[in-house]
Amino acid sequence: MALLKANKDLISAGLKEFSVLLNQQVFNDPLISEEDMVTVVEDWMNFYINYYRQQVTGEPQERDKALQELRQELNTLANPFLAKYRDFLKSHELPSHPPPSS
Question: Residue 100: pLDDT band by 50, 70, 90 thresholds?
Answer without folding.
Answer: low
